[in-house]
């Protein structure tokens, strides 16, 4: 198809294909877990998926909805959709169901590619829901390949819309092609690049396609590493990363982490920041001072045009301005600065940025009026009929021709790099019960974090609580659109035009998380300090003091980190379980204020902790795995929907002195005693993962022996006679020796004065990490690691010496589907030797550790729910 | 600043304009229509013009793309 200045070779996926054919054995992708994908394999996988997409009706102008974690599958999918001629339409990971459904409806996509379970109401909107790995090779009589026209759409990106509905920016192959072409010409190609950006952000194309089109290696990082700058630093060093694209906030955090740890990733050569005003803080200046070979670029461009301008900061690092300009326009994106009446402004004067050229998106998908409103006739064009995009951004051009960003002409906000239309949040707020009126703005909070703030005029009577509002918004908006602070006011101040007066709103005092005038050690001061720790660990400040850590993005890894930080803060060792019992800032502050607990004379070694509240009449007990702790169950407890209270059973005594180690039967007896103290009568519901399952089985035996009924015994990839990873008898596994070696290494380093350990390095052999139920966070104190490793080794010894007694009841086995078929059969046979009743097998996708983490934990939770629901129904019918 | 009131007021009148690619936009009626664009309707209030565009612009693909896709379709069938 003829098109001036264009040839099919300019299609980005074609460029990647050429690279793949030229160097098929080069590594295209690596993930943090050591997996790698060559260009040959990548090409094979994306062409197979592209063939399948063609058979499913995908072709030019046909969108494919994509909801995937950052993974090789995501990269395969992006390339496959482009190669099938279709339109790649990623949907934000944090998007709640309602919004997800609205976006899928607006797209009209026939296919949704996803790696997680899809709510039925969303699944019903598309003809096909598939996993990218499910594609069968295309048949010979299929529709065959297609070469998209440069003006066909390449992708659709959802952005916040002022009408209360997200807008889909529809970008063409021409626009994407010029971006990647510019990127390739702008610096050395083939750089090892981290994939950091959320798939719903357009920088993802620069990372993924910009890297693969020049034959570089793309390094995918885990969600944990994205959120934890110290882990990200470790990944950058370990993987020898050369290039990274970061929003300014993340760059600032990375620089602070480098300063804190003294670790600077020497391999870095190119840092690109975009999304909001770059600020050269002291930490950022220090970071680049320590990396003289690393270049820093500041990019500017709205989604409607993608990249518009770029600035490479100069060699004179001491002379970097605190707020650098956004540079000069790049190829394919011409900048006009226009004043009132669409007249060009003189240099130095502020004007609104209008962009023209190949960069322009086609418009907003299926939205003619919003498109016509922003994509205007270009009165200065050489080419008649050309359009320009009105950005709403203000800038001035200095004497050197550099553009300086000055702000917005309208209300649109930028928070953590995300674009937020306040009207969209205000509309969602106005739908919350108890809200009469609301306005939303962005404010810079203490410590320089810019965050969304809601000003709420409550209905008369009972004002809604912050946690209720925040939860309601979280159900309809992505996380980044949920305000971090809520101020309740009597009425909205109005401007002369009758609109909310944002200047006066910006002066409304905000409820602060802590009052710093108090003395150290009182709950208020401590709450402020705990808040600061949470902000550091979570990477955001969008939580209230009464919100649950695990509801605002916390997980077990981050919890371990918080506890490490709190120990540092309190100057004493704080147990990991503290954050399970004290899950809010206020509770943690109160705990710290209460001071060190007096050592109890006879503290029982078994301890129960509420993992999920619920009806006290219906309790599911989850037994600790090898390390004695319960964090590993947090996800499972949260995902379960059965009306049960979930209590964790933990080994509070920790590892014993040599020669005084309890046997597995001793441990089970202690747990049995504790459970009977809390719930004297059955029926009991018990379950456990790995070692915890063996404990649950032993406790179930004790309960039955004392005449109690066990209604549910769930073994979650657990087996009393064989190790669930290797299928070997517990006494023959190599893991105990392995843990011994790791312990020796920890001790050796502690003796060398290393207080915090680089777990990433210690975890090079990941087998033991799996046994522990996941890797501890970077910077975990040696004392913690030592304790949990020693406990794990002790438990393993107890298991090896244990002989399971025959159990006459029924058992539900939740077996990891990723274990080899032969091993799985061996494990079932082993279980049948011990269990006299029925063994019901529920297969769960994922490996031994993976079944407890996202996304597989959802399947596990559903399977456990299913069994518990059946039991509940049985009880009901018995009672009636 | 809110809603660029500095530049446009509620009373301004607009035209519905269209280019050779059959892409629509709006243009203030007191300014000369840029070359390559023709007036379809108006002058009218901005909201009315946008409302008309919502009705008129039913296929947002540029005209040249529509032609190219139709040609490719014919060749294949």
TrEMBL record, chain A:
Domain of life, source organism: Bacteria
PROSITE patterns hit by this protein: CARRIER
Gene Ontology biological process: antibiotic biosynthetic process
SUPFAM superfamilies the record matches: Acetyl-CoA synthetase-like, ACP-like, alpha/beta-Hydrolases
InterPro entries (alphabetical): AA_adenyl_dom, AB_hydrolase_fold, ACP-like_sf, AMP-bd_C, AMP-bd_C_sf, AMP-dep_synth/lig_dom, PKS_PP-bd, PP-bd_ACP
Domain Carrier: 521-596
Alphabetized UniProt keyword annotations: Phosphopantetheine, Phosphoprotein
Pfam families given in the database record: AMP-binding, AMP-binding_C, PP-binding, Thioesterase
PANTHER family listed in its UniProt record: FATTY ACID SYNTHASE, NONRIBOSOMAL PEPTIDE SYNTHETASE
Protein name per its UniProtKB record: Non-ribosomal peptide synthetase
TrEMBL record, chain B:
SMART domains named in the record: MbtH
Pfam family, one: MbtH
Location of the MbtH-like domain: 5-55
Gene3D superfamilies with a match to the protein in the record: Structural Genomics, Unknown Function 30-nov-00 1gh9 Mol_id
Protein name: MbtH family NRPS accessory protein
Organism from which the protein derives: Streptomyces doudnae
